[in-house]
Specification:
The structure is a single chain. The chain starts with 5 loop residues before the first helix and ends in a 13-residue tail after the last strand. 62% of the residues lie in helices and 4% in strands. By secondary structure, the protein is mostly helical. The protein is built from three helices and two strands. Helix 1 packs antiparallel against helix 2. It has a two-stranded antiparallel sheet.
Length: 154
């Protein structure tokens, strides 16, 4: 009548399990890569904002601190390298998908044809209110985000 080959059934089951395991592992790796890429992109955005705030703060105070600016630039470059390393470990399809998302996020918004509002500039304050840096105890402008002397975030 009907004979069942237990060994063949067992072998096919093991093949299906191996295939499912590999597919699950690939999916997990893809998700892990995407999560790590998103984390690094968030770090890059934060590092760029901090660099901009530092440069602005230094400029506003009429001061220069090139070693500190260089330190922040190196931090941005380090995060950019980490992003490139993650992309290098991705499959071509994953990389293309990630780059398409980046492009969509960085595209400029559609400009409306309404006239732009003029922004009134605040008058430049000449050394008004100040605060003390908690790290080096230097006096800095009250609205400074970074210490102009040691670079600590305020």
């Amino acid at each position: 009548m009907f004979e069942i080959d237990i060994e063949m059934l067992k072998e096919q089951s093991l093949q299906f399990v191996d295939t499912a395991k590999k597919a699950a592992q690939d999916l997990a790796d893809k998700g892990k890569n995407q999560l790590e890429l998103l984390n690094q992109q968030a770090r890059l955005s934060k590092a760029q904002r901090q660099l901009g705030a530092l440069v602005y703060s230094l400029h506003k105070a009429g001061e220069e601190n090139q070693p500190l600016v260089d330190k922040y630039i190196a931090a941005v470059a380090e995060v950019e390298k980490a992003i490139e390393d993650i992309k290098a470990s991705m499959t071509p399809e994953e990389r293309a998908e990630a780059e398409a998302q980046e492009t969509a996020e960085t595209e400029e918004p559609v400009v409306s044809e309404e006239p732009e509002e003029e922004i009134e500039e605040e008058p430049v304050k000449l050394r008004g209110e100040t605060k003390i840096c908690p790290v080096c105890h230097a006096e800095v402008d009250a609205d400074a985000l970074f210490c102009n002397h040691c670079g600590a975030q305020l």
